[in-house]
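Handoff note, outgoing to incoming analyst
You'll be picking up this chain. Sequence as last confirmed:
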Amino acid sequence: MSAAEWKKRCEAEWTLQGAPLPDHLDWKSLYESKPLGRNLLKNPAPHGLSQDTPPPEPDLPQVPSRGPPRFQPDGDFSGWTTNTEVLPYDTSGIPAGAVVCEMPQYSWFSMEQLVDLKAEGLWEELLDDYQPEILVHDWYEETQLHESIYQLHVKLLAADKTTVISEHSVSPTEELSNYSHTWKEVSHVFSGYGPGVRYVHFLHRLKNKFMREFYPTLFTGSSVVVRLTRTSSKTSSKTSC
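Most recent structure output, in case you need it:
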């Protein structure tokens, strides 16, 4: 097909009516890359789990292994930049002079990705003038290891990768009184964020515990999706759950 025909095909199939459609773009390549509506994060489920299936129950051996401390979960984290922060023991609730045989030690395991929106097929006129919605989604395991086991930080960055145009953070508090052990959903929609966005920086942190055995907090279904809406450049929405 001709360049004009590829452009017309993209416009029809992606419902691009009303969005800027410059002729200089390689519409055939854009059609093949499908930048709109797909997950732009790599390896969204490193543990091989799905939010459609309940998270696995912890495997508790009858005899503790008492091996060396672990602070990082197992998984294939290719595509992610990871970091482990081991937290100091919390001795605030221990009376003076008390003898403590064992205490849990916690750690934060951080995973982040930087999404290059232009490299993924989005074009400057679309990002600056139309400002399509950018949807962020994540699911984490309700482990009840601690009252704080999950944090999410997402930033929309300019071309220099440092200027923050818009950002969203969430750090929920867990309910520890009832054991449910389900996946918990976190979501946010960026819209009406202004011109200049070129990157999305996605970072989440999950808390793990070591006490005789290692107890991780798992996640799955992480996503960054760009979609067109007729009100994208006129409204602003910041919601999470």
